Amino acid sequence: MSLMNKNKPRIVVSESISLIDSPVKITIQDVNPGEKVTIKAKRIATGLKKLELESYAIFIVDRSGKVELDSQEPISGSYSGVDGMGLFWSLELTKIEELSFNNEYKVDPLAPQIFTLYLEINQTIVHEIKITRLWKSDNIARHEIRENGLVGTLFCMNDRTPLPAIIVLGGSEGGINEYLPALLSSHGFTVFALAYFGMEDLPKQVVRIPLEYMKSAIDWIKSRPEAIPNWNGIHGTSKGSELALLTASFFQEIKAVVSLNGSAISFSGIVPWSKDEELPPAWTYKGIPIPYASPKNPISVALECIEMRKKAVGDPLEKWYNALCSDPEVVEKAVIPVEKINGNILLVSGKEDFTYRYSKKAIDRLKSYETSYNYKHLIYEGAGHSIGIPYVYYSQGNKKATASASLDSWKKTIEFFHECLETN
């Protein structure tokens, strides 16, 4: 055996414990040059179901007896091209197992992701190593908030150091999605993940949500010792982006807004497709509905969407929202008055997500009103509605395009909030 191989073939990682959005350098070393090796990543995610995820890449070892994943392209695998984190975003679902729990079981919303990396040579596992990926830094504390009628989770420094405060709103899934807020808090912010429907005493549906609720959230976060004075940002995803843009349009305390996979048109409340003549509003202010598309229910389209979903044919949501936008006069009234926002605006969309053109309405409106604030719309080719956090499992759309868009937009989102703070 050559001196190069006096050690056993192994996987070496730069960090065994790291944040979800932090890249990890992975190296295979002490292998015979020219040998074919396979590296696999496996993860078991346990919530209400047990999911088994797996990815792999096959490489030819270089002359030094190494494979560095961030500089070498696999000859085959679950991803292509040079990508040091390809094993993480190219995961495929290999098994789903139903689990049974009693009523007291609670899923840990921020359980670390544990990966096992396996090195195989000649179909034999010769080494394995575990990697732990965290949703928040150790110096970030998580506090459940049930005050002033608000339902949310606050992420702040353990010692309650005042930092710029950002309110984060999820989408039509309802409740509190803590992943993005927890990770965002690890980059120098106090973050309030706010539920606005779908849990506890909040409305059961996205129907007639009062903007006064958002004003209560703003006033609450302003009063907190963990928040610096005179600056508040807001971030909304999907349906939550409507609420984020509306909140910033109505309340001048918001100095920076990010809309992710969202819309600058206020749409109707989310209710089951039906034969009802009218659709309810999603949002109200002082008891009056915010103008929306569309009060009139396109019944024939609603029934068609029901059939499309039953038969798993086409995209019923795209068809539905196109129908809601069929009347230009109604749409024009429903465009959110983003020109009233007292700060900079960042919009993030995937070109394959039909909602990107609804986000574009914000840019068109801002141009026509010649606002003095900065605004930008990031549109990513090939990516869809799953853009968000980098280096995670994407269940829908083009994984490679989504991974690239998520990495770029996440970095720019963090930069955007910090830059807004500096220019305030």
Automatic annotation (TrEMBL):
<feature type="active site" description="Charge relay system">
    <location>
        <position position="238"/>
    </location>
</feature>
<dbReference type="InterPro" id="IPR029058">
    <property type="entry name" value="AB_hydrolase_fold"/>
</dbReference>
<dbReference type="InterPro" id="IPR016662">
    <property type="entry name" value="Acyl-CoA_thioEstase_long-chain"/>
</dbReference>
<dbReference type="GO" id="GO:0047617">
    <property type="term" value="F:fatty acyl-CoA hydrolase activity"/>
</dbReference>
<dbReference type="InterPro" id="IPR042490">
    <property type="entry name" value="Thio_Ohase/BAAT_N"/>
</dbReference>
<dbReference type="GO" id="GO:0006631">
    <property type="term" value="P:fatty acid metabolic process"/>
</dbReference>
<feature type="active site" description="Charge relay system">
    <location>
        <position position="353"/>
    </location>
</feature>
<dbReference type="Pfam" id="PF04775">
    <property type="entry name" value="Bile_Hydr_Trans"/>
</dbReference>
<dbReference type="InterPro" id="IPR006862">
    <property type="entry name" value="Thio_Ohase/aa_AcTrfase"/>
</dbReference>
<dbReference type="InterPro" id="IPR014940">
    <property type="entry name" value="BAAT_C"/>
</dbReference>
<feature type="domain" description="BAAT/Acyl-CoA thioester hydrolase C-terminal">
    <location>
        <begin position="209"/>
        <end position="422"/>
    </location>
</feature>
<protein>
    <recommendedName>
        <fullName>Acyl-CoA thioesterase</fullName>
    </recommendedName>
</protein>
<dbReference type="GO" id="GO:0006637">
    <property type="term" value="P:acyl-CoA metabolic process"/>
</dbReference>
<feature type="domain" description="Acyl-CoA thioester hydrolase/bile acid-CoA amino acid N-acetyltransferase">
    <location>
        <begin position="21"/>
        <end position="147"/>
    </location>
</feature>
<dbReference type="Pfam" id="PF08840">
    <property type="entry name" value="BAAT_C"/>
</dbReference>
<feature type="active site" description="Charge relay system">
    <location>
        <position position="385"/>
    </location>
</feature>
<comment type="similarity">
    <text>Belongs to the C/M/P thioester hydrolase family.</text>
</comment>
